[in-house]
Amino acid sequence: MVDSADKLAYFQAITGLEDPDLCTQILQAHNWDLELAVSSFTSNHNNDPLSSSSTTATTTTAVEPSISPVHRYDSTAISPVAPPPPPGLAWKIITLPISIISGSLRILSGAVGFGFWAAGGILSYPLGFIGLGSSSGRGGDSSAQLVTVSAASREALEFVAEFERDYGASGSSMPNFVGEGFMDALTRSRDSFKLLFVYLHSPDHPDTPAFCEGTLCSEVFCAFVNENFVAWGGSLRGSEGFKMSNSLKASRFPFCAVVMPATNQRIALLQQVEGPKTPEEMLMTLQRVLEESASVLVAARLEAEERTANIRLREEQDAAYRAALEADQAREQQLREEQERLEREAAEAERKRKEEEEAQERAAREAAEKEAALARMRQEKALSLGAEPEKGPEVTQVLVRFPTGDRKERRFHSTATIQSLYDYVDSLGCLDVENYSLVSNFPRVVYGTDKLSLSLKEAGLHPQAGLFVELN
């Protein structure tokens, strides 16, 4: 069953009323029975003297609304029994059995934005809503095994092969029936923005051979159908063809129909033709269907193109956003890496600075300690020399020349040792080195460690001597 919104949309499309409140009131007055409401509206509208030239006109044959719309309004017949239906496309909303829908679920997701053709103004005469449950068809209960995708395609291919063998072997034209299940064919028509031409083939019907050879295989008819429709055929001997005949309520053969996707598990029946027809009659009917549905097909195509353009635009915007985001993230990563590098360099520089400061402090401390040690050593050695003796026969006069040109002179007791001379030189603090020797020139004698214990007299330096400081 359709919901209230669907019924309201269909009622507006059929009646041409634009006021949704008025349409709602009419539907509520008829307990939301769409068929009853539309029938009541069209009956009242056609009985209006302003909208009909004669109140006694009627159809040539009293038929149920489900009969093909090729039974046209005849203004020459007179009968006060039933009001005439308005011109235009006949329609039904057909709920497909689950055995057909299970063959392909693609049409369900694709019906959005495409399945409401029935509300687009191309439908003008109601034929009612038909629910196809287990009791609605001739194919048994709903527990019958479902037709799989492969089985539906196989049936379609077998039908095409059989039709070509029987009616196309002589090289004559024939409709390009698709070799796939009904739901896949419906999907193909939706995706190509075409209506679906349905032919239900009854091999045992006496009118079938003449109709197939004279009408379906007519060159003009085939060219028209192949150009403007997606064609699907099913044999009543096949499972899917038999179930579709039940769904479409086919009462006479040959049977042709024009359908399109509707909402959920339903299709919209735009036109059905029952019984044998000439190519001219078929072309006139199909041409009218195309003309009245052209605006909807174009609108659906434009809507799909706009939707595709919007999707492409969103994808481009998303791609541009992702690119910008990645660029921003790359810049942020680069900034973080640069910041981390600068922080590492700053930390390394700070570490080196601290190490240098510590080294300088340590060197200064060591230098100070060394200087203090030298000062103590000089002081100790100066104290160890004692007071300089006065001149006398046992006093030795010693002159010491330094590499810098400085000269130092002092008196020592002749019994003082060579070590006393070294202590004297050390106490002066004139040398920055510790490794040196005292040397006399004439004759050249090096007073090294082997002579430190000799007295000045024993070393031949008494009563006076001149020594040089020679750096080692």
Automatic annotation (TrEMBL):
Keywords: Coiled coil, Endoplasmic reticulum, Ubl conjugation pathway. Gene3D superfamilies: DNA helicase RuvA subunit, C-terminal domain, Glutaredoxin, Phosphatidylinositol 3-kinase Catalytic Subunit, Chain A, domain 1. Its main location: endoplasmic reticulum. Residues 330-369 are annotated as: Disordered. It is found in: Endoplasmic reticulum. Pfam families: FAF1, UBA_4, UBX. It comes from the Eukaryota. Residues 391-469 form the UBX domain. PROSITE patterns: UBX. The keyword Membrane does not apply. InterPro entries: FAF1_2-like_UAS, Thioredoxin-like_sf, UAS, UBA-like_sf, Ubiquitin-like_domsf, UBX_dom, UBX_domain-protein. SUPFAM superfamilies: Thioredoxin-like, UBA-like, Ubiquitin-like. PANTHER family: FAS-ASSOCIATED FACTOR 2, FAS-ASSOCIATED PROTEIN. This is UBX domain-containing protein. It comes from Salix suchowensis. The lineage of its organism: Eukaryota, Viridiplantae, Streptophyta, Embryophyta, Tracheophyta.
